[in-house]
Structure formats: C-alpha cells, structure tokens
From TrEMBL, chain A:
Domain ABC transporter: 6-243
Name this protein carries in UniProt: Glutathione import ATP-binding protein GsiA
Gene Ontology molecular function, alphabetical: ATP binding; ATP hydrolysis activity
Organism, as annotated: Rhodovulum bhavnagarense
Main location: membrane
Gene Ontology terms describing biological process: transmembrane transport
GO CC aspect terms: plasma membrane
CDD domains to which the protein is assigned, alphabetical: ABC_NikE_OppD_transporters (cd03257)
Subcellular location, record wording: Cell inner membrane; Membrane
Function text: Part of the ABC transporter complex GsiABCD involved in glutathione import. Responsible for energy coupling to the transport system.
Keywords in alphabetical order: ATP-binding, Cell inner membrane, Cell membrane, Membrane, Nucleotide-binding, Translocase, Transport
Coiled coil: none
TrEMBL record, chain B:
Organism taxonomic ancestry: Bacteria, Pseudomonadati, Pseudomonadota, Alphaproteobacteria, Rhodobacterales
The entry's keywords: ATP-binding, Cell membrane, Membrane, Nucleotide-binding, Transport
Subcellular location: Cell inner membrane
Keyword Nucleotide-binding appears in the UniProt entry: yes
Cellular component annotations (GO), alphabetically ordered: plasma membrane
CDD domains: ABC_NikE_OppD_transporters
Protein's recorded name: Peptide/nickel transport system ATP-binding protein
Amino acid sequence: MSALDFEGLNVWFGEGRDRVNAVQGASFKVASGESFGLVGESGSGKSTILRALTGLAPHWSGKIRVMDRELDRGKGRDRAFYKSVQMVFQDPYASLHPRQSVDQVLSEVLYLHGFRDIEARIERLLDDVGLGSAFRFRYPHQLSGGQRQRVAIARALAPEPSILLLDEPTSALDVSVQAEILNLLCDLRAEHGLTFLMVSHDLVVVAHMCEHIVVMQQGRIVEEMSVSDMRAMRVTHPYSQSLLEASLGYRRAQL
Amino acid sequence: MTDLLDVKDLWVRFPTRKGRFDAVRGVSFRLGRERLGIVGESGSGKSMTGRAILRLIRSPGQVEASHIRLDGENLLDKTEAEMRQVRGQRISMVMQDPKFSLNPVMSIGEQLTEAYRLHARGGRAEARRRAVEMLEAVAIRDPERVMRAYPHEMSGGMGQRIMIAMMLIPDPELLIADEPTSALDVSVRGQVLQIMDRLVQDRGMGLIFISHDLNLVAQFCDRVMIMYAGRVVETCEAHKLHEAQHPYTRGLLNSLPRFDAPQNRLEVLRRDPAWAAAPVKGPVA
Ligand SMILES: Nc1ncnc2c1ncn2[C@@H]1O[C@H](COP(=O)(O)OP(=O)(O)OP(=O)(O)O)[C@@H](O)[C@H]1O
Ligand SMILES: Nc1ncnc2c1ncn2[C@@H]1O[C@H](COP(=O)(O)OP(=O)(O)OP(=O)(O)O)[C@@H](O)[C@H]1O
Ligand SMILES: [Mg+2]
Ligand SMILES: [Mg+2]
C-alpha cells in the first residue's frame, strides 16, 4: 500500500501574465512506512506539493491519494485527515500564532484531537524536541529561531499522525539540535511506523533520512533515485548531477 | 586604524517570570573589512547579538555595553532618530525571518524601488531598473513577475533572496546577515554568497555572517566566533575551524551527518555546565 500517491499533479497560482505553473506533471509514490525526500532548486515547487496535499493550494489537477483514498479537489480536509497527516512548515515564524503561548498551542491541538491527559503529553512533547518545560509558557517572540521550529515540530507530533510532512524541518537549526531532532524523527518512525515526506535542500540530511529521493527543477520532477544511487552518484539528469557535485565538493573540501 | 565595528562587553537581558535571563553575556569583538562568522547552538544568543548592535532589542529586553562603536562613533550615544539613519544607510541586517521583515501588503517591486529611492536620488524608472537588476543578481528566475508579487507568494528561499537584495540596495558599510542562506540549495546559495563576497572584496563592506552551517562558515568566512550560552567560547580563523579545540565546537562538528559514511544515529552533543562558565579561548577577536 502506498501512504501517498501523486499522479500527474499540476498546481498553479494566479492568472494571465502572473500565472505560475508551480508544479507540472509530478508523479511519485511514497510507500507506507517509508521516508521519502524531495530536493531541488529554490522555487522549484517542493513546498507547493505539500501545500496541495494539505489543502493549502486551491488550484490543482491530477490525482492525490492518501492511504489509497483519493482526495476530493473541491472540499477542504477533515479532522480525520489531519489526525493522520501533519505538516511542519518551512517558516516557523509564520506558522505560530504570535499571541499563543507554547502551552496554548499544544493544549489546543491535543484537545482538538481528543486527548485528555494533556498535562503529561505537553511535558513529554517538549522533552522530545529538546526544549523542556522551562519553555512551556513562552510566546513565539520570546523564542529563538530554532526554538520556534522545535515548537512547530512538537505541535505536528501531538496528534500522533501516521504521515508527517516535513518542509525543511531542520534548516533553521544548528547541527547539534539537528542531530537530536533527526534522531527523534528516526525513533518515532521506527516505533510507530510513520511515513515521512521530507523537503530539504541539504542532500546530506536527505541521504541520512530517506530511502527514496526525487529531484525537482522549475516545477518538474527531473529524476527519482534511491539513496544508494545517490550515494554512489548514479544519477543521469544534469541538474541532479550538478546538485550532488556541488554539495559534495563543498563538504569534501572541508572534511 | 579604527575598526569598522568594535563591540565591548555586550549584554542583552530579559526579565522573565523566573528572574532575569541573560541572552548575551559580555560579548566583545572587533570587525574590520572582513567576513566574520558567528556559529553556535540554537538559543546561544547569535541573533540577539546582531540585533543589539542595531539597538533592535524590543522592550522589556535591555542592551548594555561599554561601547558599540561604528567607525569610532558609539552607537549607544545616538538618539533613536540618529539610529534610524544608521539602520537605513550604514548598517543593514538580513533578519532570520525574511517574510516577517517584508511588508505583507506591499508588492515586492514597490518595496525594492522605495528602498532604492530612499538611498539614491533618481527617477522612478531608474529605481525600477535597479530593483530588477538586484533580483536577477540574487538568481530570481522571473524578476518581472516577482516585482508584481507579494511576500506570501514567494517560496522560502525566494523570500530570503529578496531580503538580501533589499538590504544590499543602500550599499551599507556593514551587513549583518542572520542565517541568510539557510533555505537555499547549493547552486543558488553559491550565487548569493558571491554577491556578498564581492561587496567585501571590492567595496570594503564588513560582514557578520550568522549561521549554523559549520562547513559553510569554515569555507566562506575569514574568522569565526563560536557562541555558547550567551558567550563567545572560542574564536578562530575560519579555515582552521575543523581544528577547533573547545569541546563544544568539537561536539558540533561531530553531530554532522556524513554523506560518505551512513550512520544509524547521529552523535548528540553532551553539554557540560562548565562550558557556560569557562573563560574564552583563542585569540581575542
Ligand atoms: N500563494 C502563491 N501565489 C503565487 N505564487 C506562489 C504562491 N506560492 C508559491 N508560489 C510560486 O510557486 C513557485 C514554487 O514555490 P514553492 O514554495 O513550492 O518553492 P520551493 O521549491 O518550496 O522553494 P524553496 O526551496 O525556496 O522554499 C514559486 O515560483 C513561487 O513564487
Ligand atoms: N523576549 C524574550 N524573553 C526571554 N527570553 C528571550 C526573549 N527573546 C529571546 N530570548 C532568549 O534569548 C536566547 C537567545 O536568543 P537568540 O535569538 O539570540 O538565539 P540564536 O542563537 O539566534 O538561536 P537560533 O539559532 O535558534 O536562532 C534564547 O534562549 C531565547 O529563548
Ligand atoms: Mg519551500
Ligand atoms: Mg537566531
């Protein structure tokens, strides 16, 4: 069974001369329990794919299936959808409400999804993302960039989703916190059989986390590969080649 | 010769319900016409250091320092009106949260042309031409569309690049860039770094480059300051970052995933309370 299945997905914004064909004819499948990576140029449509799936990009065509159920284009997503699919947004600033404390954000989500042992869960979630209870009553403006991102991750984990969409989840984090979060995500995936669809511009992070990877450029998927292909540089499209060479060259020069 | 920037004993303090919290604790450094990297873990005070230089810490936060001198002038002695001049003309800061710092209800073209016209006299057409040029310089593929668009219509990386374009328009003496390339893929990032590099090399701009990407900083900067719990724990030449001594810096370097050597688990930093108290190592910046 595939957890996620995109078939000929097109997503566009605007009209006339301002029309942007942000995603064009994208097809790929994410098997249940798999971790799947989406990499590519800035502005190539990676976040847009996640947004179309979660109902945040209204104009799309093609097919999207979640756990083999086809999504309805006209309708919004219901609570059952958000119970199984959660998203960590690329921009932790925009995704937290400025007047809600960490405690309020988490209690609200937990309550909405029918949990009653809210106290204990909040403590646990904050521990999991390496923040601890000292941060519980802070507001977003009292947190650093990386701390906000960790609150966003805690919020996404709260409903215990089976599919987690991660849009650059660690690009705002320093490497030590990144290591903690990536380990946490791996543990959760192993424990609960989670499925990840993860966007990242860092190929080393994607290689660490994902079994399959697609490369995007200007709205199109130009290549799909396994992580072993990627590590062995077995790629054919010139853009994926240049992306790999550039990321490796810049690491190798140093290590 | 006076330094471009000279910061002495900088503190940033916040009152909290559990008493006073010191986000920055006695940071001192000097900067010439060079690229200074600041690295350190999340919450270590990197952004607060950058904002404090511009006196952009919101109340109830407080900034204290012996001095913060720009070309020999103490910024702490300036009035708020004078500071606005400094911010508009002499020091630019690319904030960590790009979309937050752009005006959400104004088109990107309007914001860029306005920034240009505040800085240089010249007609609307000239300003527009310069704005499009700046967008091209930061590798925006369709600058004409982007000129008409609004911030929420931009991808994460496009937002970052637009902020950089905007901050470079006034031709600042000092650019403080807070995680300016964290959302960019390697190829686009290369182009953006090149622009900053040229300004340092050709026009003698000073650059404070805040980043959590150790490899990037090692390669791109001249010197690096490593912060931990509000203090500078080590300063070194950037190309020697990989030989850094401090256990915290070593821990950071070891937490990086490796492309050539897959691991099941990444090494996690074991923090030692002594790091927060230890004296500064390495040459004083
Ligand atoms: N609400 C919107 N209105 C108009 N255009 C949009 C909107 N959202 C995204 N776009 C456009 O769609 C294209 C793809 O954007 P998207 O955010 O998917 O890129 P991305 O691959 O995630 O890039 P990055 O790595 O920089 O975040 C961009 O050209 C962007 O300007
Ligand atoms: N208004 C505030 N009240 C209390 N503490 C605050 C406030 N604003 C920031 N802080 C704290 O100050 C510390 C330093 O924050 P800063 O934003 O400088 O971190 P940073 O090093 O930039 O981290 P990151 O890499 O995550 O962006 C953090 O621990 C943060 O929680
Ligand atoms: Mg994106
Ligand atoms: Mg910061």
